[in-house]
Design a protein that fits this description.
Blueprint: E1 2-6, E2 10-11, H1 18-36, E3 40-48, H2 52-60, H3 65-82, E4 89-92, H4 96-111, E5 115-125, E6 130-132, E7 138-140, E8 143-145, E9 154-163, H5 169-178, E10 183-184, H6 186-198, E11 203-204, E12 206-207, E13 215-216, E14 219-224, H7 226-231, H8 233-236, H9 244-250, E15 255-259, H10 263-276, E16 285-288, E17 291-293, E18 296-297, H11 308-315, H12 317-327, E19 334-336, H13 338-368, H14 380-401, H15 405-426, H16 428-434, H17 437-457, H18 463-473, H19 482-485, H20 514-523, H21 529-533, E20 537-547, E21 555-560, E22 566-571, H22 579-582, E23 586-590, E24 596-598, E25 601-603, E26 606-607, E27 609-612, E28 615-618, E29 630-631
Parallel strand pairs: 1-3, 1-15, 2-3, 3-4, 10-16, 15-16, 17-19
Antiparallel strand pairs: 5-6, 5-9, 7-8, 9-11, 12-14, 13-14, 17-18, 20-21, 20-23, 20-29, 21-22, 23-26, 24-25, 27-28
Helix pairs in contact: 2-3, 5-6, 11-12, 12-13, 13-15, 13-17, 14-15, 14-17, 15-17, 16-17, 17-18
The structure holds 5'-O-[(L-methionyl)-sulphamoyl]adenosine.
The site of 5'-O-[(L-methionyl)-sulphamoyl]adenosine has 19 residues, from strand 2, helix 1, helix 7 and strand 15.
């Protein structure tokens, strides 16, 4: 039995945050669950490293794109290791083997008559790496913006290769019809159906304005569209086309786990690409919702795009995993609220689960010399507990198998409540007082066994906690589903240890949020008007402009600063302006910057320019004004 699960491959333009970690943590939970259930699992994650967005991020960081990607890919790998993610492989789209597969795949699409050349005219959102039609873009203050991320879009008019996506509409509709669970949850499936019913347009699959990508086979002036490149990772990682034996073992993927905003790529474009080369579509696409943090969208500028390790350090890895599954209904949007997290930690984990273990092991220590007692004859309350367990297990498995993770966990906690009821109802402390050791042994045995079942069911979600519980209750067998299926796995007289509480409660009154702390630090980065006034901004007129020999980027300018005299500055604008077009322009410069040497030339100031992605424009003056005029 094989099980192939994937996460999206992450863009390396910025470091991961709790939102990006969410997809991977959930995938890890599913992968661990399937392994536990006896499947041979292949769990894939990785990084998406080509395209304009990454190229721009590398440029902004002043780094060579490959070097930039190498650094970021390491950060993702390290994070997954720190979060104890059990991926079996980590793919990078700049891997040679992947790039070869992309070319092979696209060549096959060409051979199958699905690619043609045409002109693409339309809008493009670099942050989403998505083409948008005129009818799809929105307008804000007269500017066209992306309907998804609301950032400005760019007009693109290019000779491109196109994929005949429209040709696959009817087959896709059939797939959706034949398998109502092809895309889940159903409200996400309905969104996709609406798109299909509205008809599909062919997709531009190459770009010519930059080079950071996989060259189009036979036409290297074009690079393959980053999404086409990225989607192919799901087959290149398992050996397509060089190792077809291995590929066939795992393909089609059992589930592509993704966030809702990239559903169209996975549920429409990707299956069509696969059909084009004669491969089967994946078995399922599950599109989860988006997280906010303490009610706010996660974003760098808000200061809440925090490294997930900050949460883990504060609360513990298992607690974060538990909270993400329990409080954020899997499939829906949700809020990562630290206050709710603390409430869950205190109530569900420390009280319901931790205390039950604590009370039980304390009594085993005191009355049975820290050894698992022997169970005696069962009474009706014991049978009630066993029935509750049978029903819990059946429902738990069926919920987990249908990715209803939140409900599955709720079910386990309903069982914990039953075990607590059982414990309180059988009054073991009275049995101890009365010296009814046989009955006491039975009650404690059943409670320990119930705790074993709970820790086995929650093993994929809280692996470290479960293993700690195993140790304490004397379970040393292998971790597999057989031990879930029968009651009475614990061996009488195996050692039990009564340790410190499993979870430490946090006092909500005194509790400091990870997020709030960071935002306060952010605020202290604000500058005052006095700070700003230290910068001497002046209007300058460009008198002379010439390229610096042997430099691709630098231009030497002589500028007139009026009363401040004439100066030389060196600016990295050669890729954007011809020197002759600069002469006579009125620009803005920082006049009190310490001089610096660039390629042997002294720069006595810095000009101001605006940069957005591949574009750079000088800050100029609206009309004429005397050089040297102060800008404030
Ligand atoms: N590179 C593409 C995927 C290509 S797959 C062939 C991409 N990368 S991403 O880095 O932008 O996003 C990766 C995943 O992180 C997506 O599933 C996305 O939904 C998820 N998340 C990013 N921010 C998120 C939240 N705030 N909340 C939940 N998930 C979010 O898209």
């Amino acid at each position: 039995m094989k099980f192939y699960i994937t996460t999206p491959i992450y863009y390396v333009n910025s470091e991961p945050h709790i939102g990006s970690a969410y997809t991977t943590i959930i995938a890890d939970i599913i992968a661990r669950y399937k392994r536990f259930m006896g499947y041979e699992v292949f769990f894939l994650t990785g990084t998406d490293e080509h395209g304009q967005k990454i190229l721009q991020a590398a440029r902004e960081a002043g780094k060579d794109p490959q070097e930039f990607c190498d650094e970021l890919a390491e950060k993702f790998k390290k994070l997954w290791k720190d979060l104890k993610i059990t991926n079996d492989y980590f793919i990078r789209t700049t891997d040679d083997s992947h790039m070869k597969t992309v070319q092979y795949f696209v060549k096959k699409m060409v051979e199958n008559g699905d690619i043609y050349k045409g002109r693409y005219e339309g809008w493009y959102c670099v942050p989403c790496e998505t083409f948008w039609k005129e009818s799809e873009v929105e307008t804000r203050d007269g500017e066209k913006i992306c309907p998804q991320c609301k950032r400005p879009v760019k007009w693109v008019s290019e000779e491109n290769y196109f994929f005949k996506l429209s040709k696959y509409r009817d087959v896709l509709l059939d797939i959706f019809d034949n398998d109502p669970e092809f895309v889940e949850p159903d409200f996400r499936r309905n969104e996709m159906l609406k798109i299909l019913e509205g008809g599909l347009e062919d997709l531009s699959i190459t770009r010519t304005t930059f080079k950071w990508g996989v060259p189009m086979p036979g036409d290297p002036d074009h690079v393959i569209y980053v999404w086409v490149d990225a989607l192919i990772n799901y087959v290149s990682a398992i050996g397509y086309p060089d190792d077809m034996e291995r590929f066939e073992e795992f393909w089609p993927a059992d589930v592509h786990l993704i966030g809702k905003e990239i559903n169209r790529f996975h549920s429409i474009i990707w299956p069509a690409m696969l059909l084009s080369v004669g491969l089967e579509p994946p078995k399922k696409i599950f599109a989860h919702g988006w997280l906010t943090v303490n009610g706010q969208k996660i974003s760098k500028s808000l200061g809440n795009a925090i490294d997930p390790r900050a949460f883990v350090e504060r609360y513990g890895n298992d607690v974060i995993r538990y909270y993400l599954v329990r409080d954020i209904v899997f499939g829906k949007d949700g809020d990562f609220s630290e206050e709710n997290l603390v409430k869950r930690l205190n109530a569900d984990l420390a009280n319901d689960y931790g205390n039950l273990l604590h009370r039980t092991t304390a009594m085993v220590k005191k009355h049975f010399d820290s050894k698992v007692p022997k169970p005696g004859t069962l009474q009706s309350i014991d049978n009630w507990l066993l029935e509750r367990y049978d029903e819990t297990l059946e429902t738990f498995i069926s919920l987990m198998d249908s990715y209803k993770l939140t409900e599955a966990l709720e079910k386990v906690w309903a069982f914990i409540a039953d075990v607590n009821k059982y414990f309180d109802g059988t009054k073991p402390w009275v049995l101890a007082k009365e010296g009814n050791m046989e009955r006491l042994g039975t009650v404690l045995y059943n409670t320990l066994e119930a705790l074993l079942k709970v820790s086995l069911m929650t093993l994929p979600i809280m692996p470290d906690t479960s293993r700690e519980v195993f140790k304490r209750i004397g379970f040393h067998e292998s971790e597999n589903k057989e031990h879930l299926e029968k009651w009475g796995v614990l061996k009488s007289s195996s050692p039990v240890s009564h340790g410190k509480p499993l979870f430490e409660k946090i006092d909500l009154e005194k509790f400091e949020r990870v997020v709030r702390t960071v935002s306060v630090e952010k605020e202290t980065n604000m500058i005052t008007i006095e700070d700003f006034s230290k910068v001497d901004l002046r209007v300058a007129k460009i008198l002379v402009a010439e390229r610096i020999p042997k430099s691709k980027k630098l231009v030497r300018l002589e500028i007139d600063l009026g009363d401040l005299g004439k100066r030389q500055i060196v600016a990295g604008i050669a890729e954007f302006y011809k020197p002759e077009d600069l002469i006579g322009k009125l620009i803005v410069v920082v006049a009190n910057l310490k001089p610096a040497k660039l390629m042997g030339y002294e720069s006595q100031g810095m000009l101001l320019a605006a940069q957005y992605g591949d574009d750079l424009k000088l800050i100029t003056i609206d009309g004429d004004i005397t050089p040297g005029a102060k800008v404030s």
